Amino acid sequence: EPGGEMRIAAVPPAKQELTRVIKYQYRRLAEAGVKCVFGTELTAEDIQRDYAGYEVILAYGAEPIAPAFMQGFKQVMTADDLLGGKAFPGKKIVIVGGGTVGCETADYLAPLVNDLSPANRDVTVIEMTKTLAANEGGAGRAVLITRMLSKGVHVLTEAKVTEITEDTISYEKDGEVHTIAGADTLVLAMGYRPNTKLADDLAAAGVTTHVLGDANKCGNIRDAIGDGYKVACEL
Q1: Is the pLDDT assigned to residue 118 strictly greater than 90?
Q2: Which domains does the chain have, with CATH numbers?
Q3: CA distance 153 to 211
Q4: pTM tops 0.85
């Protein structure tokens, strides 16, 4: 399906309007006669064989950061897998990372109304810095954080995860180490990093390549669309 990370970004509350961007862009592709192939992963060898002489534009996004020492918990998933419907959380959830993605994931998981029902999910966000959703701006950030806190999400800022076992999550805050026991799900929302392997392989083979959006440098939707427009104008 088209959309990439934008499909995942459209899942949390108040973000569904992003699906209109996907539909609009896909309609423009169809009108321009662009052939779209889905469900296919290309290697550098595939591109050299099937598209010899082409200039290649790479816009395959980035991959979530998932430190190895955090993989030992009994149920670990990235925010992308959770929001994308590839993984399903339990009832007591700890989210590591309080940027925009971490806060939106907490907002998505928390009950619509904080009515203290035993059936509600218990959600905790652990953030290393002083500020939640620091990369979000304007009124959107204020609305997101206010809504998240009103739903009963627990927030720990200036806290750093130090150790993960199968059943516990330890973090340091104000010089003291604390341990969370009883959680059943650990969600990683620690940002993204570009996967440069395909770009590196193509460059080594001498293929003219343009790397856009998060595949080049992690940013936002505006950055990615701007990159695409700039390269299209230059070709």
Answers
A1: no
A2: 5-62+193-234 (3.40.50.720), 66-190 (3.50.50.60)
A3: 38
A4: yes
